[in-house]
Amino acid sequence: MTIKEFIENYSEDSQCKASFIQYRFNAGVICKKCGNREHYWLSTVEQFKCKGCGFRTTLRSGTVLQASKLPYSYWFMAMYLMTFTKKGLSALELQSQLGHKRYQPVWEMMHKIRIAMGKRDDQYNLSGKLEMDEAFFRTVNELKRGEIIKRGKGSQLQTKVLVMAESERVPAARRRGKSRQCKYFKMEVIEDLKSETINEVASRQVETGSTVTTDAYTSFKRLHEQVGKHKPVNVERVPASKALPWVHVAISNSKRTLLSTYHRINGEYLQNYLNEFCYRLNRRYIKSNIFERLLAVVVIMTWFN
Fold first, then answer.
1. Which helix or strand (DSSP H or E) is residue 112 part of?
2. Which of 25, 30, 160, 298 has an alpha carbon within 20 to 30 A of 52's alpha carbon?
3. Which residues contact 247 (CB under 8 A, 6 or more apart)?
């Protein structure tokens, strides 16, 4: 969808609302009282009425838009720009483009969308041959009074992230450039680099039976307990760019994107920004309907609760 097409279809709030109603019908409204999925639409009060018990559900109830007073056009514009712009945009920039007076509601709206993106990607696990490595993102974190800032991996200004990527080796006959091709990525903020923490993330995000390649860091030594096969690589002998090519591409690209777009990120919200980055990255080949896919996720948010 081009900007011209988006303006033609969703320039007015009434157009956005009509589309949102249709998406809710397609997803199936679930009655909170009896669990019935069949509803009428009462246009006079703009609510869904359950065919079973008569309970009424508002249009925004049970979706990401619940409790929000921002116009539907704001939400549609935010989802469009967050999916079609390669590096995203800040809440301050979106506020300026929308002409909204207050910053906080726009900031909260964007974070709700990012949370929805993350929950959608949590519905599938990585499988096959994978790369895994830890990364450190510079963030703004609160320090205790008189606390000395540490250096290196233990610094309070560094947030730890576990990065995973599906990576298949490309046959020599079809090889152009890199020796591996990538599919899907996941990034998850972790509290520490203990083997128990990494294994817990792997148990949720990686299919049992997968083959995972990592460096020889001690925290990955027990990874074989959660995956089918663990292949540690000594990065002193094999450069990390060759042993784990796609993980390092994702790390460097995400750091540049976050730094250039947001400048300073609070560690408490880093996961939300990584959700947005991975959501776009995992759908890099389906740009034609990425906006519609996100709209469907926003509508059926109750399914992920």
1. helix 104-121
2. 298
3. 131, 132, 133, 163, 164, 165, 167
